[in-house]
Amino acid sequence: MNLRGKQKRFLRAQANHLQPLFAVGKNGLTQAWLAQLDGALDKRELIKVSILQNADETTGDVKEFIEQNSDIQVVQEIGRVLVLFKVSSNPKLRELSQRVERI
Fold it and tell me: What transmembrane ranges does the database entry give (predicted)?
């Protein structure tokens, strides 16, 4: 699902109260980290990721890595925090994505 502007604004509003669940640190970006991220998004559909101060990667690097190696979409980039969205593969967990489709 390619997100339009209104849909991204809606998701940003939904993510406002969330705390980052994942962090990118000195270990960097790996396929194992991306697989864990994908699994968490499959259950929640919307999460935040924090890039720690000791990470070698920039926010742009992390965004590019995520978008090129998965079907996860970066909704917002605020400082060293990314808001990520992915439609769940489980139909019972698609409440948020169904609301996004109606927008």
Answer: none
| pTM given for the model | 0.90
Helices then strands, each counted (H, E), the chain: 4, 4
pLDDT above 80 (res 1):
no
Rounded to the nearest 10°, the torsion over CA 73, 32, 80, 93 is 40
Q: What type of residue sits at position 89?
A: S
User: How far apart, in whole angstroms, are the C-alpha atoms of residue 73 and residue 19?
Assistant: 18
Q: Which element (helix H / strand E) includes 44?
A: helix 31-44
E strand spans, the chain? 22-24, 46-51, 73-78, 81-85
Taking the domains of the chain in order of start, what are their residue ranges? 5-98
5-98 homologous superfamily:
YhbY-like (3.30.110.60)
